[in-house]
Amino acid sequence: MEKMRLRACALIIKDGAILLIEYENDNDNGVHNNLPAGGVESGATFVEAVVREAKEEACVDVEVYSSPTARSCGSPFVIKGLFN
Questions:
Q1: What is the CB neighbour count within 10 angstroms for residue 38?
Q2: Which stretches of the chain score pLDDT less than 50?
Q3: Residue 71 DSSP code
Q4: 3-class SS at 74?
Q5: What does the alpha-carbon distance between residue 31 and residue 20 come to, in Å, rounded to a whole number?
Q6: What's the superkingdom here (predicted)?
Q7: Of the four, 6, 24, 40, 59, which is 20 to 30 A from 69 by CA?
Q8: Ramachandran assignment for 29, one of left (phi > 0), alpha (psi -120 to 50 degrees), beta (any other)
Q9: pLDDT (tens digit, 9 = 90+) per residue, 69-84?
Q10: Domains (ranges, CATH) in the chain?
Q11: What pLDDT shows up at residue 68?
């Protein structure tokens, strides 16, 4: 049986613009864009993971205003970016 990996993504919107991280695509020498995201580490919560990923990947501090539960996995929750 394969082990499930949980992933947390931050959807950060400011002035109508969505924050995306640009990555180079080694396969076709192009680029692709992703939301700040990453795996939920063992023992961490979704909230901790999304705050960490926003900081690590986008250098953005965020506050979480509502959080998901285990039963609402995959449902959005509200974060507020603290950035200029």
A1: 16
A2: 70-76, 81-84
A3: G
A4: coil
A5: 12
A6: Bacteria
A7: 59
A8: left
A9: 544 444 445 555 444 4
A10: 7-82 (3.90.79.10)
A11: 53
Do residues 79 and 63 lie in contact, with contact meaning Cβ atoms separated by under 8 Å? yes
CA–CA separation, 38 and 56 (whole Å): 10
User: What's the pLDDT score for residue 70?
Assistant: 43
Using CB atoms within 10 Å of the CB of residue 54, give its burial: 0 to 12 exposed, 13 to 18 middle, 19+ buried: buried
Q: Which residue has the tokens 């953005």?
A: 60
Structure tokens at 79: 């974060």
**pTM for this model (two decimals):** 0.69
Quote the Cα angle for 60-44-65, to 5°. Answer: 50
According to the model, what pLDDT value does residue 26 have?
Answer: 74
